[in-house]
Amino acid sequence: MALPAGPRRRLLALALAWGPRAGLRLAGAGSAGRRAAAEDPLGPGPTGAAEIRQYLRARGLPFQEGYSCLRTPSPFAPAPASLYLDKTTGCFVCPASAAEGSWQDFQAGVELGPAAPPPPDPEHQRDREDARRLWDRALPLADLPDAAETRAAFGLGKVSDATLKRFGVRYLPPTRALVFPWFGPHGLLGLKLLAAEGWEETTLPRPGAYRNLFGLPLVGRRDVEVVLTGRELDALAVAQATGLPSLALPRGPACLPPALLPYLEQFKRITLWLGEDLRSWEAAKLFARKLNPKRCSLVQPGDQQPGPLEALNRGISLAKVLQSALPASHKSIVSFRQLRDEVFSELANVEQVAGVKWTRFPDLNKFLKGHRKGELTVFTGPTGSGKTTFISEYALDLCMQGVNTLWGSFEISNVRLAKVMLTQFATQRLEEELDQYDEWADRFEDLPLYFMTFHGQQSLKAVIDTMLHAVYMYDIVHVVIDNLQFMMGHEQLSADRLASQDYIVGAFRKFATDNSCHVTLVIHPRKEDDERELQTASIFGSAKASQEADNVLILQDRKLRSGPGKRYLQVSKNRFDGDVGIFPLDFSKTSLTFSGLAKGKAKLKKVKVEKTEEPAPKATAPEDPAPKATAPEDPAPKEPAPKATAPKEPAPKEPAPKEPAPKAMAPKATAPKEPAPKATAPKEPAPKATAHKAKAPKVTAPKGSGSSKDP
Q: What is the CB neighbour count within 10 angstroms for residue 700?
């Protein structure tokens, strides 16, 4: 997955500064780079492969069935060039002319003839120039004076120079990064840089436009088997150890863009080996659906089946690992024998099974343990308590960790929602720092975040269709619906609104399960007394919403008579492990956050002040234990006078413990005679007092003499 624009800016700026051309602009830094990520919008397309076939037959266009695409003659290139039509979306790719577009673009090309090629995009031209400049300055690893150290830094000790040269891998000394090229029909299209420090990745062009199947130029026309990996280094290891064609996905397990599917049509067998964690395993199962499960096999992560590069370094046979890959397709009924390995994997990786952790809400991790795919979360709270503001930060936290998110905001416009999330992302008011807007906007744009274009009441069918399209196009794993009531106006299932709501909740529950996608559903509560706290039964409608939900979150607003109330988040249902509870939220009006990020420094200062003020009372605290030392002397107070005047020989012993005498000379010590011994009694003699109860006169004699000397 590509990193935010912060490391990307630093890495590219350092690399491009080496070139002679001054003032080079980074990709995406200008207004053109801030175009909406939905260059392929969630727009209407064909209803399915049947409609595409019907259209091709009506136009007299021959076609061939593929695994995920239909192949037909291309109107955008001279014969016998072909293009590929995605069976689900109708989007096309013509490898011969590098043309691609939507289903409407294909229809226009067929009916009106191919339009004149559009003028080259200036931004894309600059990206290619910058990529070429970097590529020309990168060096083969074999030519480096410290080649062995460089190999060790990237774990390439067992990868040969021949393999690196074959794949065209180079090294850029100023950035201490490996350079992986993206070659197309017309030359170099882009680059990916992998830094040794922190394994930071960055792409040119930016991640949304970087769609390189690393290793594709090495695939022959007759190859029928391929291994898909999540990293370029893993592709090197597989190709060297097995001799099989190996390709690396541009964004690893985060996304498989449908525009890449035509390049995989020639393969009859595809093995997905995306990584060594459960997140990669889940992604592999989702990608197999796009690629057609019948031809896909999956390498399940395990101790003896780590990532390809690690397996090569550990001496594990990669060929045997590929032979043990599991088929992606399965029957409707399975036995425990088929599930045994997956059950063991979940037991051995408890933290990964729990899901993605929140970084801004650690208290939420204590209850829910993490954010998991395939679940339904119902969220509610009083009107005006900040439900949308909280849930936007809740989703932003996950999105910043690579969770592909789709937002459906039916109450407020996307512009207002994006403004709130950008403020939460920057943790400051950008109205007062407009000079920083471009930098924060560039970083925010690189997040895997998408928005539905709906506003106001919408039909359930339109919303579900859009969600399905987003899952296919962008591999969405988290959908936020805000809120349920806005969709109920178009449902005419019955006159009963409760039955209508139950149907909608059931549809979202089914969508989450079938598509392994987490759905967060915001539901308004029913009208209740403002002074009463909300409960699970306070959710509007019948009990079906809380019954279908895996998690129920309630934003509690405990209002005060003198001002705004204190807000808490209550976890009232947790199907994963049953932990429920409540914890406070710290709202910052400046950053619009509930996590208290903007107030973190102030909290630390308060803690330090309290610690520095505590030593003063602690200095007098030791006087309290004194009564314990004098407690056993209760029988002795009947003869205090003789004890005070009696033996003055122990007096010389007094100066030794009187090193802390300044404390003893305080007025407290001279005030009452009885407490005086308590105040002047050092900590060390106290044990003597308890040890020699019978010799109490001898022990108290120094105290008496000490107190008589003080005046």
A: 23
